[in-house]
Amino acid sequence: MKNPILIGVALIIIIAGAYFLTKSSSLFIDTPNEEGVPSEVVTVTTTPAEIQESDEVINEPEVNEKETVIGTSVENRAITAYHYGTGDTELLFVGGIHGGYSWNTVLVAYELMDYLEENPSVIPENVKVTVIPVLNPDGLAQVVDIEGRFTRADVSRSDIEAIAGRFNGNTVDLNRNFDCDWQSSGTWQSKTVSGGTKAFSEPESQALKGYVEAHDIRGAVVWYSASGGVFASNCHDDILPETLILTNTYAKASGYKAYESFDFYEITGDMVNWLAKNDIPAISVLLTTHSDVEWDKNKAGIEALLKHYAK
What we know:
Elements: H1 4-25, H2 48-58, E1 67-72, E2 78-84, E3 89-94, H3 103-118, E4 127-132, H4 137-140, H5 159-164, E5 185-188, E6 191-194, H6 203-214, E7 217-225, E8 229-232, H7 241-254, E9 258-259, H8 271-277, E10 282-287, H9 295-309
Parallel strand pairs: 3-4, 3-7, 7-10, 8-9
Antiparallel strand pairs: 1-2, 2-4, 5-6, 8-10
Helix pairs in contact: 7-9
């Protein structure tokens, strides 16, 4: 006869083993989700290095698609491009190349930015508008005490300050610093001005050059003052057919007179002529005075260009 004590001990061991296996197996089976359907169990082991990597991704700053800092000035002021629309046909508008001397060109650019913000539907689906309101922020600071968006009331200027504001922080005329007939000494009316030590010697012109070369610019408008007119661009070649279209389209809509060239005095190192040298249709729009914004005239010209570039 078998020992009843041994039989009892064996039963206890069997029962305990079965209970342990039941509890242990629950650690490895799927658990139901809220709908009662088993969900897949995934075991993830995270190392400290991976945690750090994950943090870097989470903390990465978002890219602002509405504006791009394309460079900084001599005195370390930001030069910013603002973008409107998402099409492949990019049109470029530039103000303030002569800073405080032509501060009204900056206000025209700001008027354009406000208009596009309030009326995004005027931009055709295939078009992207880029506005650089102030290419020469150091020169603008000579006559405007605040940075960023300003009004006519914020302009405090004397004739001496206005002339000084034409140049950048190195006293270079930026519209004599581009690579079309560049010379170290340029002409402004009857005065001699600095064109820099070489073409694109200045950070502001480098910033514009870098942006243009990195993008497919289909047309460009650069505002100046003051003589009242729309001027085509070229650099010792025939005027691009598209440039003639831009010139006449803007002039007809705005009421400014159209010119095939700027012949009042010799200009070297001109920005729009450099654009033409690189096969980019570009026009200079000269406001009539150094203080009038003439927004209605320019708005009409801009709208005509947008319609021209619409598919």
